[in-house]
């Protein structure tokens, strides 16, 4: 506004002087001189006002820049290459040592940047990317990352300054140094680990993400002839021998469901197809470790070639687990493998049949044909079972002429019957081919695993129990819990009955025998009752058959004879009229050679006259 006023005033005065010079020609030269002086003064004043205005604008811009610099939460410095201009924000001032703040700008710049940076700044070195420099501050050595740009003032490039913004990267620098150090240590350890793994020939498989792939080590790649560092889990399982896959699949399911004990080491021996296409024995050692990053269990472990050890152990294992006559596994191996299959059934939710066979009347073959023929029969019968066991089954000679077969249950309840009938037919054919003097047959009992027992031994014993309940040759009997419990109850009742004889729980009752004609008592009949300690009375029809089958009936007969004779003699001693005591004997009693002598002895012991005893 002030400049416009001055320009208008200048124009008015100029117009006035020109008008005066026309009106007064005598004073024209003087007026022209005045006009020249006035113009020169106007020019000088205009320049002065322009400089003042520019300085005001510069100071205002500086204040704005300083305010903006202080608003930035980083180190900021604005400086000119000639050193005439140098501004720092408060954050940078607070970081520098107090004595540095009193220095000249040309002395502070080398503190912020290397001397070569300052000298080379005009050519644009400081604009060629981010620069990192150490900085000695009042807090110690810091590392600052500087990023610089050019600020241009005016319409040309001559009036320019440089703004540098610094970020404290000390913590990142320290972390980066630690990471580099750690990486170097890890690289060294990895080198040592790789060397150790190569020397020890240990392979590694890992699955850390619960996906469908195993990551495998170079050592395992060489062992198995795998060309890639990862392999699908199902493809790896295909490399495992079919008889060992169930154990490995059981481990996988347990690991994925996180049911394995944490940090507990386990191992299993597996046959895996190797680089040469042959199966070799490997020990798979594993432990369930949680993955902190993904919250999933780490699946995998170490794989070690133990084929040489297996060769050394073969003779020992053959002596311990192979039946000498048939060449198949024996009862010891059956118990071990059966327990493993039982655990796999529970984990993988599978079911297996346990079938126990017995060659009918095998002792007759030995007696009539000789032991060599008998052994030949056992060998050929074991061959039949081995052929029938299937891919995941198991066959063993339990002892004598008893064999066991474990086969998978695929949901058909008639499958074990069909299988046993096929075996019966084949063994009959063997008898005909070798011209045995009698028909060869076998019987079987079977149970389901794990449904029929809390462990393998229980399931196996129940299959044996089912076999024992068969009442004829070529019988096929499935384990029945009701039959089993009934027999167990009978056995328990038999034990209790034996104890009751010794503990005095048996008692005689004497119902009278009345004559129809005279209406008088002719005698009494001694009837036995079992009275348990709780007062329960058990009738003879429940325990006498058990006593007859277990030969306890003889002891009960002795008790009845002794007690009845004693009681009758006591009544006579009390002055009561003599009566006949009737006692019932069982068929078992009459098979005794000394039954007559036994009765005579009891009469003599009690003093009862024989005429008062009726059998």
Attribute tags:
615 residues, alpha+beta, Beta-Lactamase, five-stranded antiparallel beta sheet, 24 strands
Task: Tell me what the structure shows.
With 615 residues, this protein is α+β, with helices and mostly antiparallel strands. The chain folds into 5 domains: 2-55; 72-168, PAS domain (Beta-Lactamase); 201-314, 2-Layer Sandwich (Beta-Lactamase), CATH 3.30.450; 322-479, Alpha-Beta Plaits (2-Layer Sandwich); 495-614, Alpha-Beta Barrel (TIM Barrel), CATH 3.20.20.450. The chain has 20 helices and 24 strands. Helix 1 runs antiparallel to helix 2 (28-71) and helix 12 crosses helix 13 (371-388). The protein starts with a helix and ends with a strand. Mean pLDDT is 80; it is low at 118-125.
Task: Please tell me the CATH architecture of the largest domain by its name.
Answer: 2-Layer Sandwich
In quaternary terms, these chains amount to single chain
User: Helix coverage percent of residues?
Assistant: 40-55%
Structural class from helices and strands?
Answer: alpha+beta
End-to-end Cα distance, whole Å, is 156 Å
Main sheet: strands, sense, barrel = 7 strands, antiparallel
Which superfamily, in CATH terms, is the homologous superfamily of the largest domain? Reverse transcriptase/Diguanylate cyclase domain
Q: Which range does the strand content fall in?
A: 15-25%
- Cα-based radius of gyration, to the nearest Å: 56 Å
Average pLDDT, all residues: 80
Strand segment tally:
24
Ranges where pLDDT stays below 50 over 5 or more residues in a row are 118-125
CATH topology of the largest domain: Alpha-Beta Plaits
